[in-house]
Model the fold of this input.
Amino acid sequence: MIPCKTKGFICGMVAAMTYGMNPLFALPLYKEGLNADSVLFYRYGLAIVFLGLLMKWKGESFKLKKNEVLPLIIAGLIFSSSSLLLFLSYNYMDAGIASTILFVYPVLVALIMMICFHERVSFVVWGGIALALCGISFLTKGTDGAMLSWVGLAFVLLSSLSYAVYIVGVNQSVLKNISNMRLTFYALLFGFSIYLVRLDFGTALIPVHTFSGWANVIALALLPTVVSLICTTIAIHNIGSTPTAILGALEPVTALFFGVMLFNEQLTPRILLGIVLVLTAVTLIVVEKPVTERLRHILKHS
Done:
């Protein structure tokens, strides 16, 4: 019998590492001639089927309240936009760097909460924001010292911002009371409409012709989507949100590993420094609030 905390840490690592496998399965599909819309059409479509079957097997309810439908549609469109922008960025920059820049979404969450909800920002968070900006500046140049594509950089930053808006929106609306699995199912379902429209309701969909292509499509729907979701839910339940978020640092590390080992992406000392700064910044911001609240609790009861 695996102890709950051990199970939580293992699931947290699996969740982050499987999500970091997005480029592992997406880039070979690009080489087969598929575009971002087609890849995500297959990914979302199959993930909806897999997740729906899983919910049915677990007895999870599909019912929605009237006041949940519109927020879910908006959340799904934002969630799907984040995926599309990330996958488009792969056409302009190394997937490992894109995944690292995407990981600054907790920094953007902190900024949104400060600007829109007047949440107080501590010196630690400001320091994390400064470190993240510094790290991104190191990542904006390629291995030859030339600036990365501004289009690619804009895509991945907008992807990170979209995901940050999605997280804030979910936690500041009626959606915070919906189970994680049902929320993701409907986010995928409503988000799927973006690719349906962009592909002229399927008429512009690029077909997959090879066995390896279908293997990549199925793996993309299962590992970075369904498996990552389930493991994230288990991890949060057993060890809490903060340790799970910290373990999320394995996501860009995994993407970088496969990028360097399989897709000949370069890892220079400057890029490595930028990655370390971004991961450090995000970790500072993730742990700051729980630590602050714990200290306040101790002082209050001392």
Remarks:
- Confidence is low (pLDDT under 50) at residues 294-302.
- Residues 13-300 form one domain.
